[in-house]
Write a structure and sequence with these properties.
The complex is a heterodimer of chains A (294) and B (324). Chain A has one domain (17-289). Chain A is 64% helix and 1% strand. Chain A contains eleven helices and two strands, in the order H-H-H-H-H-H-H-E-E-H-H-H-H. Chain B is α/β, with parallel strands linked by helices and 324 residues long. In chain B, strand 10 (220-225) and strand 11 form a beta hairpin. Chain B is elongated. Chain B starts with 16 loop residues before the first strand and ends in an 8-residue tail after the last helix. Classes of the chains: A mainly alpha (294), B alpha/beta (324). Chains A and B meet through helix 1, helix 2 and helix 6 of A and helix 2 and helix 3 of B. Chain B: It holds the Pfam family ABC_tran. Chain B: This is ABC transporter ATP-binding protein. Chain B: GO terms for molecular function: ATP binding.
Chain lengths: 294, 324
């Protein structure tokens, strides 16, 4: 049996390198078509509606939110002046928990859910290839991070435009920028928020390779998220806090300074890259050596 | 080996054995020895029955052959290539149904197959829809292709699993309990399908706990018990290993038993109208003549062929469904 014979046996099949992307397309379509994914996105889309309506009701008499004392999520006091601020408020409100929770659900389920359903063995004998499947899963989770963030941002933009005036806006530094530039900053912020989820996505994917139960992987990932958020609040633990994936999340607000204050933004993106590298490698090491016995 | 044909796979090009394992062993963490030194040889073009009680290591073996689990020791070659190292070369030519079908319940039957096909990097997306439709048609699911898989009955899921194994022309089909959950009509259809595929030159590796199923469709078989290979070979040879019985049906049982003993038939037992013994070397016609000459009224005389089940019980010393 020589190599040539194998090629003969696959007569008429000349694999095209692009065909390998078929799995990614299938994965994206399958993820978006799941009822669960749509429910998660629905919850995310509802948050800006809730915040917008609450602010609108509270300020109906011409008062300001929270008495103007800076209570509540960042930028909330500015919403009544400019609906665009609802985008920033909604992202600030969802980033600590809602957004990473949905990412944790999708990432935790990525491999463990397929294993639990038994479909993993059929993907692998197809043969999807373990590395290719893992990369496809991670790419899909990252696509979901972006999609989830954009759902929040777009929902907030629509609600903001409907309920509040739009126009020029004032940055944190006090300078005025045009509405178009404000929109540009909003898009940039959405991208940074999506990138902030890269670390938790890698962590979730790693957890997902450890178990054959999708539910267990989701719960573990979300549990880790809560733990990290709590640890980040305890002053006595300040020594470890710079290494927590959520520590610099709210640095996206620095994009609303003039000029932009980059230090924490860069630290945040670097930390996310580190998490992606460490937990991505761990997931790869685990998944490529794992016995698939379910 | 002959010159490979340029146009289509020639069975002559195939390796003599499609599956060959040497000392294949799997010990799970925790020390349980699931498969112990397996030397299995599946000839090309055969329909190979893989038998054994539940827990005897059949599925662990299949998972090692498919590269899903790493052997603790020993080697496995599939289509002439070492597994799991050559999974990317080997597996596109192998269709598999392992431990029952697994489907995405929220997708339709057709979308399930489209997804599994997309996972194969050697599958041409241009012909994907047509191949999926052909596979659905082949297992009789064309009418239910648009239904969500979670609404499928067990038999329909089994058919869809089979369809996934038939998305491409395969050189080897590994079917683990393919008739599970099917009604008798469905089982017959699957057996017909297996025969058709085998006639096309596909080697079929079929695990089953239904001995008569193996006897009906398989040319070769192997028997496992407690992680070890008890025997393997052509089904006819295996069944011949357990000898049949001469059976005489007659109202004159005692007299018949006496005549048979006189003729040199061993181990004669009379049970009412049924007298049995070891099959004699001589021509059965002579036996009949001798019985009739002695005034025994013979209703029937036959040699009951040993079944694979007799062979199995003789080999493993236990009933078939006993867990190992």
């Amino acid at each position: 049996m020589s190599r040539a014979d194998v090629r003969e046996a696959g007569a008429g099949r000349r694999p095209n390198p692009l065909w390998a992307l078929g799995l990614l397309r299938s994965e994206l379509v399958t993820t978006v078509r799941r009822w669960r994914t749509l429910a998660l996105l629905g919850v995310l889309a509802a948050v800006p509606v809730l915040v917008g309506v609450a602010v609108r009701i509270e300020t109906r008499g011409g008062g300001s939110v929270g008495g103007g004392s800076g209570e509540g999520p960042a930028f909330i006091t500015q919403i009544t002046n400019n609906g665009l601020f609802l985008v920033f408020t909604a992202l600030a409100a969802t980033l600590p928990f809602f957004l990473p929770m949905t990412v944790g659900v999708v990432a935790g389920d990525a491999i463990a859910g397929e294993a639990g359903g038994g479909t993993l063995r059929y993907l692998l004998v197809a043969p999807a290839g373990r590395t290719r499947l893992l990369l496809t899963k991670y790419a899909t989770v990252l696509a979901f991070c972006l999609l989830a963030t954009l759902v929040v941002a777009v929902s907030a933009l629509i609600v903001g435009a409907l309920l509040f005036p739009l126009g020029e806006l004032t940055t944190i530094s006090g300078t005025r920028i045009s509405f178009a530039e404000g929109l540009g900053r909003a898009l940039l912020i959405a991208l940074v928020v999506a990138a902030s989820l890269v670390g938790v996505a890698a962590l979730g994917l790693f957890v997902s390779t450890l178990t054959n139960s999708g539910i267990a992987a989701m719960a573990t990932t979300v549990g880790l998220l809560i733990t990290v958020q709590i640890v980040d609040q305890i002053p006595q633990l300040h020594a470890v806090q710079p290494y927590l994936f959520s520590h610099y999340w709210l640095s996206f607000a620095d994009l609303m300074r003039e000029p932009v204050y980059w230090d924490d933004l860069v630290k945040n993106l670097g930390l996310q890259g580190l998490y992606a590298a460490v937990f991505g490698s761990a997931a790869w090491a685990r998944f490529t050596a794992k016995d698939i016995s379910v | 080996m002959d010159e490979p044909s340029a146009t289509q796979p020639d069975p002559g090009d195939a390796p003599a054995s499609v599956i060959a394992t040497r000392g294949l062993t799997k010990r799970y963490r925790g020390g349980q020895l699931a498969v112990d030194g397996l030397d299995l040889t599946v000839p090309a073009g055969s329909v190979f029955g893989f038998l054994g009680p539940n827990g005897s290591g059949k599925t662990t073996t299949i998972r090692m052959l498919m590269g899903l689990i790493e052997p603790t020791a020993g080697t496995a070659r599939v289509l002439g290539h070492p597994m799991p190292r050559s999974a990317r070369t080997v597996l596109p030519q192998v269709g598999a149904l392992i431990e029952g079908p697994a489907l995405y319940g929220f997708l339709s039957g057709r979308d399930n197959l489209l997804r599994y096909d997309a996972a194969d990097p050697t599958a041409d997306p241009r012909t994907r829809k047509a191949r999926v439709a052909a596979a659905l048609d082949r297992v009789g699911l064309a009418a239910a292709a648009g239904k969500k898989a979670k609404a499928y009955s067990l038999g329909m899921k089994q058919r869809l699993g089979l369809a996934a194994a038939l998305l491409q022309p395969r050189r080897l089909l590994v079917l683990d309990e393919p008739t599970n959950g099917l009604d008798p009509q469905g089982m017959r259809e699957i057996r017909t399908l297996v025969r058709e595929l085998a006639a096309d030159g596909t080697t079929v590796f079929l695990s089953s706990h239904l001995l008569d199923e193996i006897e009906q469709v398989c040319t070769h078989a192997a028997v496992m018990a407690q992680g070890r290979l008890v025997t393997q070979g052509a089904v006819a040879d295996l069944a011949a290993g357990a000898r049949g019985r001469l059976v005489v049906t007659t109202p004159d049982g005692a007299e018949a038993a006496r005549v048979l003993k006189e003729l040199g038939v061993g181990d004669v037992t009379a049970d009412g109208e049924r007298v049995t013994g070891e099959p004699p070397e001589r021509d059965l016609a002579e036996v009949t003549a001798a019985l009739v000459a002695a005034g025994v009224r013979v209703r029937g005389l036959t040699v009951e062929r040993a079944s694979l089940e007799d062979a199995f019980v003789a080999l493993t010393g236990e009933g078939f469904d006993v867990a190992g």
